[in-house]
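Researcher: Structure prediction, please.
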Amino acid sequence: MNLKKYTDYGLRVLIFTGMKKEGELASIKEISSVYNISTHHLGKIVHQLTKLELVESIRGRNGGIRLAKPANEMNVGRIVRMLESDFTILECFDKETNHCVISPGCTLKHALNKALQAFFKVLDEYTIADLIHNEEELRQLMGLK
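Model: Predicted structure follows.
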């Protein structure tokens, strides 16, 4: 299974923003610089994260973004489900486009569905706080103080 870059970048934004001290805001420019992602692309992602109420956007000269709730209340599995629009691993996962002749008796789709559920079960065990527990190491890797 392959998550979209959009989801990857969205999670990176949440990780970066989650490392900010209380009251401190992150900027798209700052996140762009650390991850080497275009500010235009990040702007779209941050806009979506704001619409999903995962981050709050503060306008103005000293504006920026911050997590909409504490990092330990932000479940990674839930976030991935919100950001990913398609979990159709095989043609047979979508009844409208399924043309596979063995689909009615196929066990593969059940195995893959079980694997997908296991994937989410693991992600559901993590929060954004869990992803930043090694904050000092992450700061060094990002070139931050």
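Model: The longest strand covers residues 55-58.
Researcher: Thanks, that helps.
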